[in-house]
Amino acid sequence: MAGRILLVALLLAACGPSAAGTADAAQAPRPANAQTALFAGGCFWSAERDIEAVPGVHSAVSGFAGGHIANPSYDQVTGGRTGHLEAVQVVFDPARISYAALVRRFLRTIDPTDAGGQFCDRGESYRTAIFALNPAQQRAAEAARAEAGRALRAPIATRVRPAARFYPAEAYHQDYARRNPGHYNRYRTGCGKDARLRAVWGAEAAAH
After folding, report:
1. Angstrom distance (rounded) from CA 23 to CA 5
2. From 15, 43, 120, 191, the catalytic residue
3. Could you confirm whether 43 is annotated as catalytic?
4. Which tens digit of pLDDT belongs to each residue from 159-173?
C-alpha cells in the first residue's frame, strides 16, 4: 500500500513544472474565419495535445479559466486557492470542423463521468467543463453533453459553464507533450489515460 501511495503521489506531481520547453511563437497563419472554443479536460498537457490533433484545429493554448482571481500562477491554481480549472483555449476553422463536432470529439478525449478530476490527476483544478462562449455554443455543448449521457448510459459530470476569462499558463507548459515526449508519454501511460478512455468509450475513444 505504501508503494502504491508513493506512485500515486508521483503521478499527481507529473503534470507539474519542468524546466524544459518554452512557448512556440511560430504558427501557421490563422484562418480568416477562425473561431474560439474553451475546454477544461484535466491536465492541460494532455488536453492540449489531444485537441491539437483534431483536423480543423489551428492551435491550442494551455491555461486557466473559471476562477476568481486574475493572472493566476500554476502553483496557485493547483493549490486549490483560485477556483480555476486547467483549460485549453482552442482556435479552430469552422469550415473544416463545426463547433458541435469539436465538442463531441473533446468529450471522447476525457472521462466525462468523473466528477473528481481526470485519471490520476485529482482535485478541483482537474475537473472537466465546456465553457460556452456564446448562445450557439451553449446549445451545441448541451446537446453534445446529452448525447454523451445517452451513449454512456451514465450521468455526465462535465458541466457546460458560462463564458469565462482565459489566462495562459506559464511558457514551459505550452506544447509540453511535443517538446518533452519522453516525460509526457511516461506520465500519460502511468496515469492510465488511454486505458481508461478505452474502458469508458470503447471504440469511440479518441485515439492518439
Report:
1. 33
2. 43
3. yes
4. 999 999 999 999 999
